[in-house]
Specification:
The complex is a heterodimer of chains A (about 525) and B (about 325).
Chain A: H1 2-37, H2 48-78, H3 84-90, H4 99-110, H5 115-122, H6 133-157, H7 161-170, H8 174-202, H9 206-212, H10 220-231, H11 234-258, H12 279-310, H13 318-349, H14 353-361, H15 368-379, H16 389-426, H17 431-460, H18 465-468, H19 476-484, H20 489-515
Helix pairs in contact in A: 1-11, 1-13, 1-15, 2-6, 2-8, 2-12, 4-12, 6-8, 6-9, 8-11, 8-16, 10-11, 12-20, 13-14, 13-16, 13-17, 16-17, 17-20, 19-20
Chain B: H1 2-11, E1 21-26, H2 28-31, H3 37-48, E2 51-56, H4 60-70, E3 78-83, H5 87-92, E4 96-97, E5 118-130, H6 141-146, E6 151-154, H7 160-173, H8 177-184, E7 188-192, H9 195-203, E8 209-213, H10 216-224, E9 229-232, E10 238-248, H11 254-264, H12 267-270, H13 273-277, E11 280-281, H14 289-292, E12 300-301, H15 308-322
Helix pairs in contact in B: 7-15, 8-15
Chain lengths: ~525, ~325
């Protein structure tokens, strides 16, 4: 088996190390660049409330999202029903919404003049007042419940359908089913989901401000933005960025400590059916699915309705922006895919795999503003940062999607190795052939989901481009914000719809491609 | 036009397209298709035999941050879009050159004398409301605080109008400003990152009033034929924002920059401002009818020599008052 395996394996390590180097530069260089240019200043004690609130809202957001995702993912995993595929796909949508669009969509339902307040007014109550921690959590759960659900669902779907059939044949008690299926699935997937959501919520700030109700709801990310934009206090921004990295590292270490990959063994790939036909659980699952569909679906419908009105007012420059966004998204996706596969392989073959994985997660804890400003400082002495706006955006977007992709791909890859590794080695299957014949078909659903997320995230991202954008090059999110800044809310809603539709379209293509026709 | 712009953008870095290029840093909404940028570019290029290149850099504060990041390598010849709250911070950087000639024909609500920063438009902050829904309109911060009206404002830590409001309350109430903020705290529905979020939330009906400009109703009148928006007139007077343009001392295009600064106060520039930037022109050029229907504040509150330290102190006071 050695003859054809060696060249490829010899390549795997350098490729992985090169990818790791790229990530290390993106995590560390910007912070160092800020420190190198820092003149005076630094964080004051005033930042403590922001750190406290950041920890509070991020932990609660993560715990609530994952707790609610458990019954939802379980219902999706064990029920076959009409529209199931569509529902699983639509769960990708909230995550892709630009924050301002999501906020306006949520307010159309939950706001003081939203649908629920209108209903309450009919019986003489209301209006709802969600502003404050409640509002922040509502928005973060709306964004992340679907992501958590998808991550948990991957775990449940790794349980071969034959196991469920056997459990039904044996008429296992609920407790036994929980111990056999649910507990290991949760042990494997929940810490990962908690971690990713915690990190994502930690660096959220426009949403936190808009729904937080006032300066009591301030995050570290806002302090970073303020330090970079208004104060030009690079030292303070760098220190705050380090605080975020340290919190992120601690959270990642915790999640790694408690997480444990679940092992169910390989199945024959039998199609999935409703094996559990007891009435109580069926009703419960039905209720969970309906509630979730409303919670996720209603704000999306509000965005759709607003956007349709705005389609008549679409501005010129829309298609140019669309093309720029699409190209950036695709380049970024290819980069993210290459980086994540190279790194996943490196983690597998390296003796320090755990440490590498932990380090990669720090990408989630980096602030886009810090990366942007740091890269600006680094590039400026050599070239005009404007000229590099689009490549930088693509690279940074790829890097930001990378940790999420890895959290999705890694369990799948280690499952394949665990279940089929010895067989593959026995057959002398290695290198490209092994990837093509074994790994790819096995991880296809996860690969599709992760790639779809990366593509859509890059399409909808605004973070870095604002720092570099030349005036005649704009992406869809930038166009949307520019319209909003010029009173043109209706046109902006139209652009938002196009943006969301195209992000979702990209996501759907990859995700559906991954799940194939049968899923 | 689009194709031409694209072609121009491709050629520019190689410096072969036009005889001279003047690079102007400005904020995002100035250069967008529906902002003043395109018309002003065309008008100036018609008379200068040069290429005017706008570079957008977020908002005024972001622009200043970028200039500091770029240092001597900046390509900017002129910066357009700082305002009177950022003026002293900008001056302290020592990178701006004095104006070649004292401006003539300025028509601002206040006396204006500055040898470096030239006003190109101005506007008053105001609370904007829907006049079909609001019957009792507050006429002061105190009346607003006593009412149970809801307002959306912007965060002074991330937004220029948000900072303007902090200065406004400070200018009107001095040492009692924290008390006013505490009294207002139950009226504030939420505080947003920027103007767009706040205004969008107001239009969605999330609050009775939003912090914006006295000229906002003119936009709805002219562009949407919608007379339902009004601005509340406050007896304390209104914060006056003056938007400024200045030239960089390190620019290699001093003559062309002077030519552009002289162009700023001509009718060709000023007449574009009202209906694209939705602010008042800095000279006595004619304004659309709708603008004359807007409220005329009793007094113009404008910070004199507002420094970086003032801003920090003001924001700290604001955070403390609203975190009670």
């Amino acid at each position: 088996m050695g003859a054809c395996a060696k060249p490829v394996n010899r390549l795997a390590k350098p490729l992985g190390i090169a990818a790791l180097f790229v990530v290390a530069v993106l995590v560390l260089a910007p912070v160092l660049a800020l420190l190198s240019r820092a003149e005076s200043g630094g964080v004051s004690a005033a930042v403590w409330p922001a750190i406290r609130f950041t920890l509070l809202q991020a932990s609660l957001s993560a715990v609530i999202s994952v707790a609610l995702a458990v019954p939802l993912a379980k219902a999706l995993a064990r029920r076959a029903f009409f529209g199931r595929g569509l529902m699983i796909s639509l769960l990708g949508a909230p995550f892709l919404l630009p924050s301002i669009v999501a906020v306006l969509g949520l307010l159309a339902i939950w706001g003081r003049s939203g649908a629920f307040s209108d209903l309450l007014a009919l019986v003489g109550l209301g209006p709802l007042d969600i502003y404050g921690l409640n509002g922040v959590l509502l928005a973060h759960v709306f964004f992340n419940l679907p992501l958590a659900t998808r991550m948990l669902l991957q775990g449940w779907q790794a349980v071969p359908a034959e196991h469920y059939r056997l459990a039904a044949q044996l008429d296992l008690a609920p407790r036994a089913r929980f111990a056999l299926f649910d507990a290991p699935v949760l042990r494997g997937a929940a810490p990962s989901a908690l971690l990713v959501i915690f990190m994502l919520c930690m660096s959220s700030f426009a949403v936190v401000l808009a729904l937080g109700g006032g300066p009591k709801a301030s995050t570290i990310e806002l302090a970073i933005y303020q330090a970079l934009r208004f104060e030009f206090d690079l030292a303070s921004a760098a220190q705050l960025a380090i605080v975020q990295l340290v919190i992120g590292l601690a959270a990642a270490a915790l999640a790694f400590h408690f997480g444990k990959a679940s092992r169910f063994g390989g199945g024959l790939g039998a199609p999935f059916q409703n094996w559990d036909r007891r009435r109580g659980p069926m009703l419960l699952d039905g209720a969970v699915l309906v509630l979730a569909a409303f919670f996720v679906g209603l704000p999306l419908l509000a965005i759709l309705a607003k956007g349709l009105e705005g389609l008549t007012a679409l501005p010129s420059g829309l298609w140019a922006a669309f093309v720029v966004s699409l190209v950036v998204a695709l380049v970024s996706t290819v980069l993210a895919l290459g980086l994540s596969l190279a790194l996943a392989r490196l983690i597998e073959i390296s003796q320090r795999g755990g440490a590498i994985e932990l380090f990669l997660l720090l990408l989630l804890a980096t602030s886009p503003f810090v990366i942007g400003t740091g890269l600006f400082i680094l590039i400026n002495p050599f070239a005009s940062p404007f000229a590099l706006a689009l490549p930088i955006t693509a690279l940074v977007n790829a890097a930001l999607a990378l940790p999420i992709m890895l959290r999705i791909l890694r369990p799948a890859l280690s499952r394949v190795r665990h279940d089929y590794g010895r067989l593959a080695e026995g057959l002398g299957l290695s290198g490209w052939a092994r990837f093509r014949l074994l790994t790819f078909p096995q991880i296809r659903p996860e690969l599709g989901f992760a790639t779809g997320l990366a593509a859509a995230l890059s399409m909808g991202d605004l973070g870095v481009i604002t720092l570099f954008a030349p005036p005649d090059v704009q992406t869809l999110p930038l166009l949307m914000y520019r319209l909003m800044g010029s009173y043109q809310m209706e046109a902006a809603a139209g652009v938002a719809l196009i943006l969301v539709a195209s992000s979702f379209g990209l996501f759907y293509l990859f995700d559906k491609g991954g799940r194939g026709a049968g899923a | 036009m689009k194709k031409f712009l694209f072609a121009a953008a491709l050629c520019l870095p190689f410096g072969s397209a036009a005889a001279e290029t003047l690079t102007v840093y400005t904020y995002d909404s100035f250069v967008s298709d529906w902002g003043p940028g395109p018309q002003i570019k065309a008008a100036f290029e018609a008379e200068c035999d040069c290429t005017l290149e706008f570079v957008s850099a977020g908002d005024g504060a972001a622009m200043l941050a970028r200039l500091r990041l770029e240092g001597e390598r900046t390509e900017a010849d002129v910066v357009l879009g700082l305002d009177n709250s950022l003026m002293e911070t900008a001056r302290e950087l020592g990178i701006f050159a004095p104006l070649a000639a004292a401006p003539e024909g300025l028509a601002l609500p206040i006396e204006w004398q500055d040898d470096t920063f030239l006003p190109y438009d101005w506007g008053y902050l105001a609370f904007v409301y829907d006049n079909t829904k609001l019957t009792e309109v507050p006429d002061s911060f105190e009346a607003l605080a006593l009412s149970d009206l809801s307002i959306v404002i912007q965060d002074p830590r991330s937004s220029t109008p948000g900072l303007g409001l902090v200065i406004w309350v400070k200018a009107a109430y001095g040492d009692s400003a924290p008390l006013v903020w505490e009294a207002l705290s139950d009226n504030i529905v939420t505080v947003t990152k920027g103007w767009s979020e706040a205004y969008g939330m107001f239009l969605e009906g999330e609050a009775d009033m939003v912090l914006s400009y006295t000229t906002s109703p003119a936009y709805h009148l002219i562009a949407e034929d919608d007379p339902t928006k009004s601005a509340a007139s406050f007896v304390e007077g209104h914060y006056l924002q003056v938007e400024l343009v200045a030239k960089l001392a390190g620019s290699g295009q001093q003559a062309l920059a002077d030519e552009f600064l002289a162009f700023v106060t001509t009718d060709a520039f000023q007449s574009v401002i009202p209906e694209t930037n939705w602010m008042y022109p800095a000279t006595a050029v004619d304004v659309p009818e709708a603008f004359s229907q807007m409220i005329d504040p009793a007094a113009a509150l404008s910070p004199n020599g507002f420094t970086d330290e003032d801003r920090k102190a003001g924001i700290e006071e604001w955070v403390r008052a609203l975190s009670q």
